[in-house]
Design goal:
Elements lengths: L1 H5 L1 H4 L6 H32 L3 H35 L4 H4 L1 H41 L3 H33 L9 H23 L3 H26 L4 H33 L5 H12 L13
Length: 301
């Protein structure tokens, strides 16, 4: 895709041309899709490593979203290539259009083919991971709810990081972002999103109320920044905006939902501090490192 963005035969043309701008936007969407695929691999690996069944279920939902997204990309790419064919018949994009479009068609097909396999393996993992959940909660219904809220917030932090980062990549690639002075806001949002995610993780893992409050405030600030960015982009209305309006609004609303949910579950996790989850997780961590020693029981006592 970088070749599509940097090919001199197209880049030397008039960059205000609608066909070129639409193709550039489509290429940006494909880059974000590629990053989403890498994120899917990470979330799957991380879920198996930490035996988090909720995370594996969320991967299945992400599969569905990627399938729908990849199908829409087929039609958008087909339309973009037809537009390019009018003024850029000799460009590599047009000459290799059939191969590029074929690769796009293969993506949702491959995802759908492997869905039954993933569902089967997820069910198997659910049975295997139940032991860890029981070992941590000890069968306590209260501690089980605390553990579920903890895992949900961890999941929200990961997805907020990804969707927030992906949305900012789009803003950086949008033709008029730099002209309208959004660069500073976008860079700040990317850096602060990562920082806030780290604060959120340590706040619930260490059960630190000051850090948890800072995380909740940070999520609120990111929500305000995201709304501001959407407002600024909407003020740039034009023909290129019509091409990005639907996926942009969908991504932004999803990001807002993730941030709002992070605030809600952040508050729930703060209320659960001191109920024993931290001690159990610390004990499990020492056990994995080989540092945990079972307490000695005096049978003569």
């Amino acid at each position: 895709m970088l070749d599509y963005l940097t090919t001199s035969s197209v880049a030397t043309r008039n960059t205000s041309d609608l066909a070129y701008e639409n193709f550039k936007i489509g290429a940006t969407f494909n880059i974000v899709f590629f990053l989403a695929s890498l994120f899917l691999v990470f979330v799957t690996w991380d879920g198996i490593l930490h035996q988090n069944i909720l995370q594996l279920i969320s991967v299945y939902v992400l599969h569905i979203g990627l399938t729908i997204y990849s199908i829409t990309q087929i039609f958008q790419t087909y339309e973009d290539l037809n537009d390019l064919d009018v003024n850029y018949k000799d460009s590599p994009q047009v000459r290799n259009g059939d191969l590029y479009l074929t690769a796009q068609v293969m993506v949702p097909i491959v995802i759908v083919i492997f869905q039954p396999v993933f569902i089967y393996l997820t069910i198997k993992c659910y049975r295997e991971f139940a032991w860890r959940r029981y070992r941590i909660t000890g069968g306590s219904k209260i501690l089980e709810k605390v553990f579920i809220n903890y895992n949900i917030l961890l999941l929200l932090i990961k997805y907020t990081l990804f969707f927030g980062f992906g949305l900012q990549i789009f803003y950086l690639a949008y033709p008029k972002t730099g002209v309208e002075g959004m660069w500073a806001l976008v860079i700040f949002s990317m850096v602060f999103n990562v920082f806030n995610g780290i604060v959120g993780f340590f706040s619930i893992r260490k059960e630190s109320k000051p850090l948890a409050v800072a995380f909740i405030i940070g999520c609120t600030a990111l929500l305000v920044v995201s709304v501001t960015e959407i407002y600024l982009v909407y003020s740039l209305e034009g023909k290129t905006f019509d091409r990005v309006q639907t996926p942009l609004i969908f991504s932004a609303v999803l990001g807002w939902a993730l941030l709002a949910s992070s605030v809600v579950f952040g508050i729930l996790c703060v209320r659960n501090f001191g109920k024993g989850l931290r001690d159990v997780l610390d004990m499990e961590s020492r056990w994995r490192k080989g540092l945990y020693r079972s307490p000695t029981i005096d049978l003569d006592a």
